[in-house]
Specification:
CATH class of the largest domain: Alpha Beta
Shape: globular
Distance between the termini: 17 Å
Pfam family, one: C-C_Bond_Lyase
Cofactor: Mg(2+)
Largest sheet: 7 strands, parallel
Order of helices and strands: HEHEHEHEHEHEHHEHHHHEHHEEHEH
Number of strands: 11
GO molecular function, one term: catalytic activity
InterPro entries: C-C_Bond_Lyase-like (IPR039480), Pyrv/PenolPyrv_kinase-like_dom (IPR015813), Pyrv_kinase-like_dom_sf (IPR040442)
CATH architecture of the largest domain: Alpha-Beta Barrel
Keywords: Magnesium, Metal-binding
Amino acid sequence: MRHFGHISPTVRKDLFHQEPAEFSVASPAHTLAAALGATLYSPATRPHLAADIRKQAGRGVVSMVLCLEDSISDSDVLGGEENLVRQFADLDADPAGTEGLPLLFIRVRTPEQIPDLVRRLGGPVRHLAGFVLPKFTESRGTAFLDAVAVAESASGLPRLYAMPVLETPDLLHLETRVEALAGISRTVNRYRERVLALRLGVTDFCSVYGLRRTPDMTAYDVQIVAGVIADVVNVLSRADGTGFTVTGPVWEYFRSQQRLFKPQLRRSPFLEEGVEELRTALIEHDLDGLLREIELDRANGLLGKTCIHPAHVTPVHALSVVSHEEFSDAQDILRPERGGGGVMRSVYTNKMNEVKPHRAWAERTMLRAEVFGVAKEEVGFVDLLTAGLQV
């Protein structure tokens, strides 16, 4: 699979200076973590889940979570498990084949579900990339990660990944946050080769204080949440080789509501003929706030995003593509002859590139360029957004 693989090769050639690379579940973990993109959540109880998965793959989704936890009621868990077994069998039996399926993860409730589900899935388990582990703490995490290891051994798969979700009150409460983060760090580092990425449960964070952000506000406008995000990145996503990929929080809104504040989406990128309609559509569907939050995610060290609606996928991916300017800066910083450090004017002559301080940024940018591609010099996110939405 590849990002923007759902659009025609001709259109991709027009958009990209460097096209997104292909990847699969067998790719290196650091590549997969960067490539997750907009991870679309779906309740495991959906009766036509296999068809939904194929449909979303055709629209550019490359990672999905099939949820047995908060998205379904307690009474539906057993039915959801049975449905997953049926739907994986349907995927496996598809005469069209299974090439191009998204990376599929199951979000469970308990460690015991993990080996049980792998056993019940049987042969079609080969289409499973791993498990999402809810309400992850040091005390709960070891049992979850051990269960993934046991399930992997029983399945015969080369790897089942885990994606812990950080969402418990002890991360939010100031008096327990430092030790909670230290405990999570100890746990995920013991299982480093298995932990693909860490996910943030911002809705659960908000619930601790009875908060809910409006579509006019990002997670970073809710200061108590922004503080937790900053501390998670501080401890768990350092650029010194010890960090993990941390993904952005969910955007909850997908239909128009009464707006209190001015739209956050500037008019200038949409001035070309006919594109103003796209801006209007994005605002009407509360996606201007999403676009701003994606930018703030990346500025704060997060990559990828949890999504609960297909309409959110293309904006996440369009804003994940590396611009030609970013790529030029990263290339310049990483040139072998720059190994001794120094400062130079950027290729675009609009900023300073300082080799040693900017090196980690450049390395991360080149990894993002590998999986999301590099836009041509004259191509902006509006062009990428339009191409993705027209499929």
